[in-house]
Fold these 2 entries.
Entry 1:
Amino acid sequence: MSDRPTDAPGTPPALPPSGIPVFEVTPCTNRHWLVLPETIRLIWIVSLAVLAGTVAVEFAVDYHLKFHADAIPGFAAIFGFLACVVLVFGSKFLGIFLKRKDDYYDD
Amino acid sequence: MTDLVLPPGVILILAGLALPFVRHTARQILMIAAPLMVLLAVWALPDGTSLTLDYLGLTLEPVKVDALSRLFATVFALMAFAGGLFALNQQNARELAAAFVYAGSAIGVTLAGDLVTVFIFWEVMAIASTIVVWSGGPEARGSGLRYAAIHFLGGVFLMAGIAGVVAETGSTAFGPMEATSFPTILILAAFLINAGAPPLAAWLPDAYPRASWSGTVFLSAFTTKTAVYTLIRGYPGEEILIWIGLYMVFYGIVYAILENDMRRILAYSIVNQVGFMVCAVGIGTPLALNGAAGHAFAHIIYKALLLMSAGSVLYMTGKSKCTDLGGLFRTMPVSCICGIVGALAISAFPLTSGFVAKSMISDAAGAEKMVVVYFLLAAASAGVFLHAGIKFPWFVFFQKDSGLRPQDPPWNMRAAMIFCAVLCIGLGVWYSPFYAILPYPVDYVPYDASHVIFYLQLLLFSGLAFFLMLGALKRTLTITLDVDWFWRRGGRAIAEEFEFQWLRAYGVIVEGFWRKLRLVIEGLYVNYGPDGPWSRTRPSGAMALWVSLLLTGFLLFSYI
């Protein structure tokens, strides 16, 4: 396939289009502050608070949705979440039949 | 205006053709200046027809301007500028020339007042964009060929349809039509092929990601959005478009969820986004058409931004598979932040261009009391955030640490990304000038409290769903079959069977020929070979005997 570098022993790896070799290090999991477990925990807590906030705020304002969907509290939250669950598992189901190895077409 | 109006699209085409003949700085200046000149030219043109030509007894109007065509020509010129800036380091002059001819012919279509001019620029666009695909390298050869085949098929439909319309009505004018007669159905089919509509949508995710790091940025903007323009102009309110659009929306999401290559994810999401526009054209009210046009405008910019971000990653690492990438936020902060801005805009987050444009489409469906369409579009909006809004930045810039430490790309690529990112936010915050250039007068306020809360809940909870289902979304080294299987594998199997049968027939014929030839040679050998009757040696005694017999005979007869 196109972007698989041909690393035969003894030949240097293919250069990217920029012509600048890519600097590579051993993958690490916890050196950058953004990927420290404490930071990730904090991100989860803040995100969940924001999620709760977006639902709570609908009681604070004059909240009206089309087709009387506002009758159900947090309708958009539930709808968005379920839509994604259905889409992901629907796609995975179709993937059972439609997925092939990425060198399936040998052109 | 004077009589010597040069269509703005032609300016860009000429600039493109000149590109290979100038070098270095001159080429870079031309790449920046030509699109800006075209932008000025578009805005200098007055409303109405500025140029008419007589050709083969038909009256052509190559330059006809109204609000709709000016909107599209503006964003195409902006896109040529941003793409040119991004591509300044591209050494392949052929690709750059083709990209500018491609952009120029797209502008040509938007300013065309008649169907014949539309057709001419349409075909130039097909040829130029095929060359852009082919400039991606040897791997792009096959998909470029498939791309060209589909687009020339569309061109045939378009030409046949136009001929039919001209024969029926006697007019070449390009205005609203109804898909009720055979020629108008053909024209609609041609427009839909370019829009990436089913069943032939596979050309788009097949060809676009094979182009070079800069080529894909150009490709993403013009073909599909020109098709959206022609649909808005030619088939507003054509009801079937609602359902075609919805199919495209969900097709894009499902295939993008299953995809591993970052640029192919974005290619599927082009189909998804164009689906929103096609659906809006089908709804057909002024609000919906404004939404379609505005969404096309916003989409061109944020999709280019996303592909520039992906292109930068490809340019600096040479990799485009999610399974090879990850953790790049450490060393590519500009590409990462710009990519996130593009991702928020495509997801229609409040304060981005996507929000102020897409809201009009869903509200148009709501205003027309189309309950099913309204909620399907809302579900699709959630799906967009899932498949492009989070998936692209997450798998490329975060996810795991791939160990790659590439730097941000050169200044011009960063500048192009920042330019698009600023536009994405700017159009979302100061939306009144944007609304002012839409084709119909706008009486719409996007930032209504209920509306904003609805979208925030919808999108943020999709985000939650994404992170809770990360395990199910793990990338695999796979591709997903599409309709193009029928000609990439099915047709090939038929061809191979034909080839096999033909070879067998050929074998029988050749074998028969050699058998016949051998019989002839053997026959000759029997008669003329070393043991054959014709090559027997005769002793000289026999000759003497025969001569004496002859002479005796002669003597006898001379006495008689």
Entry 2:
Amino acid sequence: MSEVSIYWLQQVLNALQLSSIYALIALGYSMVYGILTMINFAHGDVFMVGAFLCFLAATLLDLPFVPTLLLTMTGAALLGVLIERLAYKPLRNAPRVSAIITALGVGLFLENLTLAFYPYPQNVPTLIENINWDLGGVSLSSLQLIIISLSLTLMLVLDYVVQRTPVGMAMRAISWDKTYVPLMGVPVDLIISITFAIGAALAGAAGTMYALAYPVIDPYMGIMVGWKAFIAAVVGGIGNMRGAMIGAFILGGVEIMVVAVLPSTYRDLVVFSLLLALIVIRPHGILGQPRVQKV
Amino acid sequence: MRATLGVFWDRLMEQRWLLPLLVAVGLALAFAIPQFRLVNNYVQLVMILAGINIILATSLNLVNGYMGEFSLAHAGFMAVGAYTSVLLTLHVFPVAAYPGLFHLSVLAGGLVSALLGLLVAIPSFKVRGDYLAIITLAFLMIVKSALENIDVIGGPRGISGIPRLTTLPLVFCWTVALVWLLRNFVYSSFGRGVLAIREDEIASELMSVDTKRVKVLAFMLSAFCAGIAGALFAHLLQFISPRVFDIVKTTEILIMVYLGGIASIGGSIIGATLYTILLEVLRPSTVAGLLSWLPAVVFDPLNEHFIRHLGVLRMIIMPLLLVLVMLYWPRGIMGMRDFRGFIPLRDRLAHRAATPRGPTRNGTADSH
């Protein structure tokens, strides 16, 4: 292969790694929006807490990769349910803006709480032995392989849960209609909590992988990554899970390509301009359905 | 006794001279304080900050409270105003040569910011609710990212060595002028249009409200005020960088607005003042000073375990406060109400006969 094509293949691989992390977080945004039509702005900070839980498990408990991942996912899921029960549930019938502001507040609270314990960036130890395979000039590390394959597995499992299981059916039913579905015996509160738990667990998994791939973590890391994942969800059509995955791969691709062509400081500028253009042109995203406004 | 006091209070509140009198007294104080050193510099600084925060909160309330949208762009407008005015004072009108032209550069900061407000207003014709919130957020991020990428104005390092030109009388005058402007806008026919858009955009369009014009005016006015506040803030801080104006700054302003209560000028004034004071009171040195009369047996452990950590604690307390306000006190201190002195006489007379104006919370800020 020529030098140029090897370079671009390498970039595609890097884009895949970044995108699969974005996709896991974007799914959480999209699931919550699908069910509650609410933007959970604290989701990026759940991801950050996930990264810190991974750091704690690896340094304090000396756990290897798989228990760390499970612990992080469980911890993040609990946090997600706790936030939903304490902060969002009382506001379910309040004006929409109240819930958004509360979510912003919860996010800032999580950031500053973590900052109180860790005022400086922390280094996460390596949990996965670093092996590099050389595939005809393109190098693939064991970490990249694990991140990409694990994210894909989690996404396939989620897709199965949502499309084929009773819980998934209840989720889809609630996002379809909130007045009559509870009358059919669907436990709305439980399903909403489960949705938050799944979304937060995915964010926790993303946090673990992010912490391993980019091992310097700080309490404010969730803001940018969270917003990017949110953009991915909007690009794909928020509320639509397959859309969230597609959006994440588009976003990750754009980011890596921008960095490959322009100075890296232009990344956010390009990404947010893209979002702005997309919202004005096609507000419902790639796979989303436009909502008809009735008068 | 209590009834007499109540009647007296009502009578007092309805006097036409009350508000001008308060402003005149305030103005006299604003000039007297720095002149005769009535309070120390620190208290003066807090007063200036409170004035800037009042401008920010009332102007954000116009979009987020009266119009019922959710804008996150306020810190971005502040940044635009701050950078414009600082570049003008540093490079176009050096203070040494033209001391009076500083006011012009503050005004220019507001005007450029208002122009950019137009950029946010145009998408708002088509997009509402969550998506408009995202657009304003994207605007904030783009402003920050653009400022970081322009190396001539310092890039991520920002600009330092700005002369300190913001004084208490200046901030007082701007605050009064802008609050007066916003109050007049809110009670004008455009203000009625803003309220109508919040309650039902389509219905208001049918009732011949020029929704586009109203939105453009509201966004531009709000951005103008934020730009002025940013310019004043920059010449107070003497240092600006893109990081000063990030999402955290917007969140601070949101806390002031929602603590004070939406759709209330008086509420925003109270919210901003309260927030500024609370933030200062919760500093370790202030609390230690306030509690220093306690015997050492009580004070020392308190200091050791609590007061010394307040610097971090208050950063946790503030967002928690926002969440608690939203959960238990969603209307804030004066949500949907206002000081009687701010409400025009004709409205007061109209409402006296009718039942007290009940807030129509259902559907507020809801995009259908």
